[in-house]
Write a structure and sequence with these properties.
Keywords: Signal, Transport. With 484 residues, the chain is α/β, with parallel strands linked by helices. Helices cover 46% and strands 10% of the residues. The chain is globular.
Amino acid sequence: MNKTKITSLLVTALLTVSLSACGSNNNGNNTNSPQNSASPEESAAASATPAESTDTAAGKPVTITVLNEGAVAIGVGKLEDLFAPKEKELKGKGIDTTYTPGNPVAAFPLYYQKIINDQLKAKNISIKTEDWGWGEPLIQKETAGFLAKNLPDIIVGETQMPGFAQQGLLEPFPDDMAADIRANVSPAAWKPMEYDGKIYGLASQPGVSSLYWNKKLVKEAGIDPEKPITSWQELADNAKKVTEAGKGKFYGGGVYAGPNFGGYLRYGALIGINGGSFADENGQPTFNSDANIETVNLLRELNADHPAGLMVNNTEGTYFDAWTKGQIAYLVDGPWQVQQCKDNNLECGMSPIPLSPSGQAANVTIGAAFHSVPKDAKNKEAAFEYIKAMYSKDIQQLIADSNVRSPILKEIAETPEYQQKHPEMYLHYQAMNGNVKGLPTFAKDNSKVWQVWGDAVVKSLMTKGDVKAILDDAQKKAEQITKQ
């Protein structure tokens, strides 16, 4: 990797904002650790402690350094030293710390890490965890680590990870491992991290979006609350009916469309369903395609069935608060909504996202913590053993028992027992097996180009301007940035 290319990556990544809410706040298995307050340079210098050996086959002990994922983090340090304090902490909160496969699990992060630790310990591999935060702080620290060629053996992230792969900064999965994953693992777990025929990352419990609805509000509008919506027109019509029935007290809703990754990740599924895209394979913008214009017109129609400004609010939490409080009836979001509906005493329906007239099922990964091995990692072989453990049967059974995310391992998710026991999560699993992508990385100044797109969508929804003209203008502005 030449210096110019890495410097370009630094500029791009430092400006990119990752969706922290999906990787942490909206994750039903979440146990957040305090963010690392060190500077990017300090974090990079402190990471990737040299191991005793990189040859796991020789039977010599190896210590790998792994960045924490908020959903399964139990602390920072040598993993086996963290179990007893974490168990004591959970018991002090009245949380059941026992688990038998096939039964519900309360102490999910504890067992997730215990299972991986046991599997790697048998191979003479020890694990040390570090916390670099999430979102923009994480991107900054990882980028500094790439520049210093000093990173943990496994890094983690969401929207930034495909870009790292495209820049040649990640180690491709070994061919036999990649073949095993393709044959046995849901595409949502790895397809967004596939580039030039190689796999560069895996998420053990990714999310994709589905359509949810508040049955109480839908019923008040005279709509059958048990009947799933199958078309965009039906979604728009039903949202309008709910808004009319609500008389200012509640609204139809639909999908969050704020000018940030929270919005792009959610209505990105609608873009894909309609055959549109944000960018081509070279990272050039494709904003003003006919498919995108049709999708933004749908968003405009749905915007009329929201309280003024809610659909494009800069803070996505405000939108989801309205859903939780029963102020909007329809919502496009990830699988955590199944449990959150129960927690908030909402009776919710769930179905695949409706299709446009000529559309086909498609989705965008959301809340997906992709784990990857950097090119300059010191213990690559041992690091890949950790990733193998992530999609092992024991870990995937644990995820299945959590009933907050669906397992990615086909031999668990496709059994009649799982389908009957976890019908909502099986519906989510089915959505993970279609045309699933991650958000693209633009060829240059990624965050600037995304902001051009986000501003254009907000303008389309909040004014009466011609959508095609607005997206044509956005396309020109984006090309001026990416083609300089």
